[in-house]
Amino acid sequence: MENRLRATEMKGTSSINKSIVKVLSVFTSLQVVNVICGMVKMKFVSIWLEASGVGLFGIFQQVTDTTATLTDFGLRQSTTREVAMKRNDGRLLGRLLGTIRSWNLLVGIFGGVLLTFLSPLLSSLFFESSAFWWSFVLLGVCILFNAMTAGENSILQGLSRFKELARAGLIASLTGLAVSIPLFRFLGNNSVIFSLLAYAVAAWISIRRFRPRDIEAESPSPALLKEGKDFAKLGGYMALAAFISSLALTIFIWWLNHYASTSEVGYYQAGNTLVVRYMGFVLSAIGLEFYPRIAACGDSSMRRSVYVSHEISLTLTILTPLVLLFLVARPWLVELLYTSEFDVIIPFITFGILHTIFRVPSVIMAYTIVSQGNGLVYLIVESLDSIFGLAVCIAGYTFYGLSGLGVAFIIWYAGYLALTWIVAGIKYDVRVKRGGVAALIVSVAVTFASAALVCTAPTYIYIPVLLLAVVPYVLRLKTLLGKGGRRRKR
Fold it and tell me: Where in 316-420 does DSSP place strands (E)?
């Protein structure tokens, strides 16, 4: 009987592992497609619109992102939590979907009207002329479509309908690119704003195609807005936390530009893109799958602890070999993406990539904290993290330059992990099991030893050693997915 129970438990765990890895692989692949589409888009922009076109994309995208951060009340995450908690109650769920759509329509209209109102000022601020006011008005339309798309995304995520979410994202990326290329060719710099609008409309049309038809949702209405105050309040805290984090990054870049030079800012941005974007694909996929699952736990601290421990163990099994492969390929990545001038960032990214071993479990802990609905706790945690990160990055660069920034990243996220671990443990009784702790210790030991080897040994030694170190993780992943070993005869 005991063996049967154990076999059943292992089968269930294997099924969960397969589900998680499937979601990770699908959305990581989608992120790769998005990056490729972005590279193709920028290639055509650089050919036909030259540097001015690239600059316009940067300006308009930054204005869009900043406006969305200030006006969307963090609804994407807070509404995902609500859907995950009520997805088994058909009556409440239908009304909730109507409430979510009402709120996203409201914040979209608010963001669009705000940009329209500020369009003459923004045009004068960025272009020293009011002639571009119409571009910012069209950006307001983009804000509206993006807000409605975000609402549908949160619904699909909360319902764990990842296949539909991925398909919608893929169609939107390819359609937006296909529409944009002829615009670049024939409209010149005016095509930039129409390209952004094309992407926004394509995303909205594609997500509407995959919206849940089996749930009878109420139509958006002003009356439903009253029922969304709780998730709007939580989202407001999350939006404020995101703003503080963005502000801290802006302050650091401003300080680096004045303390060092614009070139150093460029080196920092290049290195930061490699060590953050490289693992950003995995982190985005983790959030999509894990957040609704942990939110659905309700008040069960035991289930939370099991889910957190399991997620840490599995994601580190996936992440650690990726870090090892990055350490092997880092000089070629710099050569491929940049020029020989950027070789100075290699020490920065060698140390900086190690921060991801702390970052992944800390993000899992952060999702656990926000899943409990206490926005104030999350805001305090993220604010402390932003202040600490700003301080260690300034100190790291002051004493050791770009290499010190890489070390600062490690200290920063080790501190973030400690903070989220303590808060989740004390406030929400999350206890990481032995397997999760062991996975973290082993990953830290393996990656730090590999980085030390890379810094001290010749290429012909560290490359085969690191590639061999990947093998046990591949075998471990096969075991977790139920593909390893022989089947015992009963």
Answer: none
Between the alpha carbon of residue 422 and those of residues 43, 243, 302, the distances in Å are 46, 24, 17
Tell me the pLDDT tens digit for each residue of 168-213: 999 999 999 999 999 998 888 889 899 999 999 999 999 999 988 8
Report the b/e string of 67-91 with b at 16+ CB within 10 A.
bbbebbbbbbbbbbbbbbbbbeeee
Cα separation, 490 vs 261, in Å, equals 70
User: Domain check: are 168 and 298 in the same one?
Assistant: no
Closest CA to 327 of 313, 343, 347, 344: 347
Does residue 49 sit in helix, strand or coil?
Answer: coil
In the chain, what percentage of residues exceed pLDDT 70?
A: 93
Q: At what angle do helices 90-127 and 75-86 cross, to 10 degrees?
A: 170
Per-residue pLDDT at 8: 45
Query: pLDDT grade, residue 14 (50/70/90)?
Result: low
Q: Determine contact, residues 157/165, Cβ cutoff 8 Å.
A: yes
Is residue 295 within a helix (H) or strand (E), and if so which, with residue range?
A: helix 278-295
Highest mean pLDDT out of 5-14, 230-239, 384-393: 384-393
Q: State mean pLDDT over 106-110.
A: 92
Token code pair at residue 34:
């998005």
The angle subtended at Cα 335 by Cα 329 and Cα 339, nearest 5°, is 155
Q: Note whether residue 44 is domain-resident.
A: yes
The answer to whether residue 43 is domain-embedded is: yes
Q: What is Dmax (Cα atoms) for the chain?
A: 80
Could you tell me how far CA 134 lies from the centroid of its own chain? 31
Domain boundary among 169, 204, 227: 227
Residue, of 323 and 42, whose pLDDT is higher: 323
User: Distance between CA 311 and CA 300 in Å, rounded?
Assistant: 17
Phi, psi of 22, rounded to the nearest 5 degrees: -65, -45
Query: What is the distance in angstroms between the CA of the first residue and the CA of the last residue of the chain?
Result: 12
Distance between CA atoms of residues 245 and 392, nearest Å: 14
Query: How much is the pLDDT for 162?
Result: 83
CB-facing half-sphere around the CA of 213: CA atoms within 13 A: 5
Residue-range definition of the domain harbouring residue 176: 22-227
Residues 180 and 297 reside in one and the same domain: no
- Residue 218 phi/psi, 5-degree rounding, is -75, 150
Q: Is residue 15 part of a domain?
A: no
Using only the alpha carbons of the chain, give its radius of gyration: 23
Confidence tier at 293 by pLDDT (50, 70, 90): confident
